[in-house]
Write a structure and sequence with these properties.
The complex is a heterodimer of chains A (356) and B (234). Chain A starts with a strand and ends in a 14-residue tail after the last helix. Chain A is built from 11 helices and 12 strands. In chain A, helix 1 (25-41) packs parallel to helix 11 (319-342) and helix 10 (289-302) packs across helix 11 (319-342). Chain A has helices at 25-41, 62-70, 90-103, 120-123, 131-147, 185-194, 211-223, 243-265, 272-281, 289-302, 319-342, and strands at 5-10, 46-49, 77-80, 83-84, 110-113, 151-153, 161-164, 177-181, 198-201, 231-239, 284-287, 307-312. In chain A, the strands form 2 sheets. In chain A, strands 1, 2, 3, 4, 5, 8, 9, 10, 11 and 12 form a 10-stranded parallel beta sheet that branches. Chain B has a domain at 83-233: 3-Layer(aba) Sandwich (Rossmann fold), CATH 3.40.50. The chains are: A alpha/beta (356), B alpha/beta (234). At the A-B interface, helix 6 and helix 7 of A face helix 3, helix 5 and helix 8 of B.
Chain lengths: 356, 234
């Protein structure tokens, strides 16, 4: 029986208060800790934080926020979505998350990827043109630190290490590390080569169109002599009591977010019709618990998934509404997805324990 | 310039019989876009060779799964394979290819420059006639046609319709070599889109998407008018 995991993702957006005014960034961070505590009480499996360096997102130091959550929870797993590995230092990343794993009693996890915004490159002095090499090299070092110490390693972009121990040590299999991909075949094959589980990030279009990438991943795993590994999906959404209520709440904030991006970059802003099309058969999981559960179950079946993470609420939706959506996701959506998937024959299985 | 669409139809009728057009295609770049074009071309009856940045073996599995029927090759082999080559590499990497790589070939520049992904590129940013003029400069002996850049890769797959169907989505082709443009237009037609001749290469800026996640789509008539509008402004 495949073990299914359901998580939440957030970039810690600056939200607005009841008067529609943005709240302070530090308050956003404390609110997020609260949101994660609620997530645990309603049985959600993981809480995963992104990595940005922008005015509108407070997720620049995910390990600190996750550690705060760790000390106020017992069970919920604490992860990233995603860690921008190319512009991070693998040794420091290891120390941050191995320490988180210790304070949380073994609940740390990672998704490493590029993300869709690349502001960390100029900020930390890296060239976007080096993205592939940086990622490959740093993933290699990170995986070695996670799997087998001491490490001897050399590369082009950071100093080499010889017989290096990096503390604290972690127990075998801890800090499961997934590779986040947006649809580049090369990234999919790389995840298989490293023997790491795959997290698909799909924020637009039909999720089913990623079925060939799932096939590519499975065949690449075979080719590299790797065991079957889990596949997950990250998408955006919002849950309310009814479909109408969910659309009514989410649309203005979605529109506001994209209107800003449109003005800043010269895009055409999205229309309500385009939004509805995404909600109806694309990658916006917006609606009542029943609607959202059915859409999630359909995607999980189409793509042989054992993990689904919802980025709960797009835009500056207020804290209390975020809490409400988390409660519905945990109490109603997840159990319903499990029910729907249990009712259908299993095509294949993935191991319950993920080696890091 | 709705006449552009009519002119194409007349052109097809009077040109060499499309059935004996050379149905071989080369694609340089085996990422999500390159493999999508490969898939579409295979479905349209083309004999496709595709390359990545390294040896053919590196992309063999990817091609087998995502573009079954295409053969994985090196870039040199791809160039030898066909008269028409699609350049589908990441924009910040096209200069890695030697300037004479595509000598004498019709080179479809399908690339778009997007700063958040490609980083700062002052040369591309400053190109008044669109980024393809820079590509032509880098490959002076190639016959560069700007095309296939207007749609996101998943749109390319989902919006194509068979030849002869009405109200298909249009894709433009801009290039200084008129014969090259005509051949590319016949390829577009087979791939499932109404082709629009957008004029010389420097009109290519009129075909550049604004970067929004959902690319705008137009009929042939709408696209012709849009190109006229945008080029009249310059």
């Amino acid at each position: 029986m495949k073990t299914l995991e359901f998580g939440l993702d957030t970039f810690l957006p600056v939200t607005v208060d009841a008067a529609g005014l943005p709240i302070r960034g530090d308050q956003v961070i404390r609110n997020t800790v609260q949101e994660a505590i609620v997530a645990e009480t309603v049985g959600i499996d993981s809480f995963n934080i992104g990595e940005h360096y922008r005015k509108e997102f407070m997720d620049s130091a995910s390990h600190v926020v996750l550690a705060a959550i760790a000390s106020r929870t017992e069970r919920i797993r604490l992860g990233t979505a995603v860690t921008v590995l190319s512009t991070q230092d693998p040794v420091r990343l290891y120390t941050d998350f191995a320490t988180l794993d210790a304070v949380s009693n073994g609940r740390a996890q990672l998704i490493v990827g590029r993300g869709s915004l690349t502001e960390s490159f100029p900020l930390f002095g890296f060239d976007l043109a080096d993205y592939e090499e940086l990622f490959e090299e740093k993933l290699d070092l990170l995986v070695r630190l996670l799997r087998e110490q001491p490490v001897t390693w050399s590369g082009n972009f950071r100093s080499s290490v010889t017989d290096q121990f990096v503390s604290p040590p972690i127990a075998e299999g801890h800090i499961p590390t997934w590779v986040g991909v947006g649809g580049s075949p090369q990234s999919v094959v790389r995840a298989a080569r490293f023997g790491l589980p795959l997290m698909l990030a799909v924020i637009a279009g039909k999720p089913e169109r990623f079925a060939p990438y799932v096939e590519l991943y499975k065949r690449a795993l075979q080719q590299y002599g790797q065991p079957e590994l889990p596949i997950g999906l990250h998408s955006l959404g919002f849950v309310a009591e009814t479909d109408d209520e969910a659309l009514e709440i989410q649309w203005p904030y979605y529109k506001e977010q994209f209107d800003w991006a449109a003005r800043e970059r010269g895009w055409r802003p999205p229309t309500y019709e385009q939004f509805l099309a995404e909600v109806d058969h694309g990658s916006m999981y917006v609606g009542s618990p029943e609607t959202v559960a059915n859409r999630i179950a359909a995607a999980m079946q189409a793509l042989s998934l054992s993990r689904f993470d919802l980025l709960y609420a797009v835009g500056r939706i207020p804290h209390d509404q975020r809490i409400a959506t988390i409660e519905l996701y945990g109490r109603e959506v997840i159990p319903r997805v499990r029910e729907l998937l249990a009712a259908t024959p299993e095509a294949d299985h993935a191991p319950a324990v993920v080696r890091s | 310039m709705a006449a552009a669409a009519t002119a194409f139809a007349e052109d097809v009728a009077s040109a060499a019989n499309p059935e004996v057009d050379d149905l071989r295609l080369g694609i340089v770049g085996a990422g999500k876009f390159g493999t999508t074009v490969a898939r579409a071309a295979i479905a349209a009856g083309y004999d496709v060779a595709i390359s990545g940045s390294g040896p053919a073996d590196d992309i063999a599995l990817t091609v087998d799964v995502l573009a079954a029927g295409a053969h994985a090759a090196t870039t040199d082999e791809v160039v030898r394979h066909a008269d028409i080559i699609v350049l589908a590499v990441p924009t910040h990497r096209f200069r890695e290819l030697p300037g004479d790589q595509f000598a004498g070939k019709i080179l479809i520049d399908a690339m778009n420059y997007w700063q958040p992904v490609d980083g700062d590129d002052p040369e591309l940013t400053a190109a008044l006639g669109g980024t393809s003029t820079i590509v032509q400069g880098h490959f002076p002996t190639a016959r560069v046609v700007k095309s296939l850049n207007q749609l996101g890769y998943h749109q390319l797959e989902e919006t194509q319709r068979p030849m002869g169907e009405p109200d298909r989505i249009a894709i433009g082709a801009a290039g200084d070599d008129r014969l090259a443009v005509r051949r590319v237009m016949r390829l577009l037609d087979r791939l499932g889109f109404d082709p629009v001749d957008a004029g010389p290469l420097k009109n290519g800026s009129a075909l550049e998407p604004d970067g929004s996640p959902i690319a705008a789509t137009y009929s042939a008539e709408q696209l012709s008018e849009l190109v006229s509008l945008r080029t009249a402004r310059n």
